[in-house]
Amino acid sequence: MTKDRERETRQPKPKQPALDLLDGGGSLLEHLHAIYVGRREMPISKARRHHYVAQMQLSRFTLPAASGRPKLWMLDKQTGTCDQITPGGVAWERNLYSVYDEEGARSTRLESLFGLFEMHAAGSIERLFTNPLGFDFGDRVNVSYYLALQEQRTPIALDAMEELLGQMGTMFACIELTNSRRRRQRAEDARDAILEGRVDVRPPQGERLRMLLDGIHAVAPVVHQMCWQVQHARSGEFVISDCPLTMRDPAPKYAFSGNAWQSSPAAYATLPLSPEVCLRVDGLYPGSLIFREVESQVASTNLRTYGWAQRYVMGRSKDVLLELHALASAAPETVPKPSPRHIVLTEDAGAADPGDAARNKARGWDSHIIYAPDDAPARELSYRVIESVADARDSMRPRVPDEAGSS
Fold it and tell me: What's this model's pTM, rounded to 2 decimal places?
């Protein structure tokens, strides 16, 4: 090695801005970059059980069993039964992230990629427990991607994404066919088939999974720059579920607002990491990492975890799970539930269908919303919340003119 080459290799790497995670020092991103440039090979998983809650996370809620691997307790919300199970036996679906080509060949690249996410996050989460002062920029990147993954990888989240894509596809197709100037009659016939429900515009599985990846990459930088609070339970135990990352917004901007990382300044998300530790992410002190002992928050977090669960709630203690189930069953109105995200169509109030305002008011919502950009006067807008493909079709139907001749 020449002296010039030696001096070059000893130069410290320049620090990268936290806003640009692709150029940051996270080991996950370094690993992915090495695969991209050919220095490393992409590991290929042959697994058919695709876990949507990582076994490495579930294993922190286990206890040694009389025989076999350590187990955790699993509560079935539907039946109230509680049984012991290994981390590998819960929160999985067969070929959930597999993609099939036209010949039916199965690709598991996405499952393999998620395995990399989990592997790097596992080491970073371990540092939060054993060496929090050593938790660095790269660790924060690793866990940011893991949080973004956990939000969007569950069957419930994937179904919601598919529904949203169906709504968007329905509206886009109708607009394109309505505006088409070629083969006008055929375009109108195709549009009418969609509006009448004879044609269902749904994305292929591969598109749903592509949107999943796009969503993870968009969300991770947002999570990275938020305030992270590592909560240690002073008493009680945290539990986990088959949909473990939950969100709460005590001050949503609109009554129809869905849960999101930054739906309002008061919004926050929680992810239990062990019976003793829960990670809370909010907008209080952006970019900070805070360690805090909590007590009352354990019960409220557990109740929200129960409410967000698709079916199963897991934990280290059977008694804690049964007490939680009894509390939720006795007062179901107190159990927080997810608020789904929606497409919202807006238009000037003067030109809109007055039925929209009446329908909104009947639901207890504001009849109109006020749009007030910084550089323009405030405007009153009519709005329509799209909650289903049927709503999307209704929003695209030609408006019937009223008696005055307006439409």
Answer: 0.87
